[in-house]
Amino acid sequence: MRKKFIVGAFDDEKVLFPAVKNVRKAGYKIHDVYTPFPIHGLDHALGLRETSLHTMGFIYGITGTSIALGGMSWIFTTDWPLNIGGKPHFPLPAFIPITFELTVLLSAVGMVWTFCWLCKMMPGVKKHHFNLRSTDDLMVMVIECTSKTNETEVQSFLHNNGAFDINVQEAEDGWWFGRYDREQKLYKTEEVGY
Amino acid sequence: MSLLKYESQLREPLIDGDKDYHQVTEDIISPIESKPGRLWWIGFFVAIALLLFGVYSVYREVTYGIGQWNVNHTAGWGWAITNFVWWIGIGHAGTLISAILLLFRQGWRTGVNRAAEAMTIFAVICAGMFPVFHVGRVWVAFYMFPYPNSRGPLWPNFNSALLWDVFAVSTYFTVSLLFWYTGLLPDLATVRDRAKTKFRKFFYGLTAFGWTGSTKHWQRLESLALVLAGLATPLVLSVHTIVSMDFATSVIPGWHTTIFPPYFVAGAIFSGFAMVQSLLIISRKVMHLEDYITIGHIEAMNKIIVLTGSIVGFAYISELFIAWYSQNPNEWWAFRQSRVNIFSPYGWAYYGMMFCNVVSPQLFWSRKLRRNVTFTFFMAVLVNIGMWFERFVIIFTSIYRDYVPASWSTYYSPSIWEVGFYLGTFGLFFTLYLLFSKYFPVIAVAEIKAILKTSGENYKKKMTPMEKMDTEKFYIEEVEHVH
Fold first, then answer.
1. Pick the CATH number of B11-144+157-458 from 1.10.260.40, 3.40.47.10, 3.40.50.1370, 1.20.1630.10
2. Range of the domain at A17
3. What ipTM does the predicted assembly reach?
4. Residues of B numbered 227-286 whose beta carbons fall under 8 angstroms of chain A's beta carbons: which are they?
5. Does B3 contact A180 at a Cβ distance shorter than 8 Å?
6. pTM
7. Which of A140, A163, B363, B454 has the fewest CB atoms within 10 Å, counting from its CB?
8. So what's the pLDDT on residue B478?
9. Cβ B21–A17 below 8 Å, yes or no?
């Protein structure tokens, strides 16, 4: 969806953290903070909840365990019981390596897939970048405007909190398929109803 | 973790020089944006030439059969399996650096993990070639995977260590690739966002998957990296354990030993670190990354080399002792006659292995030698040669004289195509590594930035007032107010 955002950049975590605190206290809605590297504690400062990605990893892992153990047991006891040097048809210790490998494989592949799904990432996905230096050296705070937002007020508020390079951008907040070497006009008309 | 950016000055800085975030990006990304130098092209052509020779060797093997190699009925596993174990062992250091050191919160891993992980992936690709082509009829190699087929369905034997290997190596490759690539996404986005040319915008736009650097995405990525590290840690131990079981679960004297799994894992990490050293010593020089891959990094890896080298040495000696102590005539004979006896046809390989892996790495107890780059490079090559001989000794000296003296195969020497295949994997490995170093950031840019303010040289200097501060005052001023 197309929305209006106020964008401010910070170059130091020490300035960013109090700013995040103040902006939230003032009641503005932080759309996101884009950072060039993981800043520990920023997610809590923004009030984001813990990710449940690891729970998904566990579920995928258990699935792998079940597929491997169930599959091998079914094959060796039911589908085609082979006599391999008189060994038992259900040799549990011999099943452990493959069971372990499949647990790890499914867990890892599943988690990465879920990660990409949740973050909406895949080859060919394009998103709006508020400040290209947010992957280089700046932490970019993006505040979402509502119909009641006073833009100039927010801008000066950001400025007082140590932000620079402050501007207002109208942008698509989701993702779309596109190429980064091409400029794209997602919307034909300019009028937006706020 | 908090905002607190303090690390004792007793610790050596991990990033030398006067850096800020932008400078880090500049230093690491700019080699990607410039044309490769003459050394790169020379390396690339040599690698391609080796690769082509390897392709031709494999072509001969596929067309005319395994007879193109000099392996025979007694010694069915010659160079190919030796090379397989060697390459897969090389890969283990990458996972150790990226996963185990992540769990142990070792800051120095950030300088070397990206290149080491790439090395892992390329080494596993090279390793996988050997068993695949050693099966002879490579076009039916997919029979190894259990899938419902029209032959019964006839399933593979899940009791077999060789099948465990199929699962272990393919899982290892997949997980390493995912781990490496997810870590690479933010850095590819960095390259994309500063790209000037159309090609770079397109290529890195595609490969960065639309990464933005959103806080939520970072949170998920960190969680993902932590869980993948937790999974990769037992995985890497399991892979070489299973590779060692290819031997240990057999009843061949010299192979049938319970010490194999830990011994193989230590050896794998040992050889892998040697390979990381040799690659990074060249990379840091050629790409001017001395500030990020410091002498401290090299020393840290040398410490691991001396540790694992000593474990390997301990394993050699206890293996030999147990061969005697078990009083199993066949086991003892395999050791006494085929290995320790320097006058036996392959006795020299045993002593070569002992020298390269056990004796020479002990020199790294000296701090001066650990911090000597040229010496480290020389030792790294020596260790890799030694570890190749270790696998050769284990595999070949155990089988070339079997229970029937009439079938002893003393005069095995590899054919040119057997050697060619090995050289070909070197070509493949270096081609991939050179392409990687040209098109991808060889150092994890984002991770370096994350430790810059604790471990950067210029930031550490600023910590002097903190160092002198009273504990109470330090807590109130530096810790409390940020929470």
1. 1.20.1630.10
2. 2-50+126-183
3. 0.92
4. 227-228, 231-232, 234-235, 238, 242, 245
5. no
6. 0.92
7. B363
8. 64
9. no
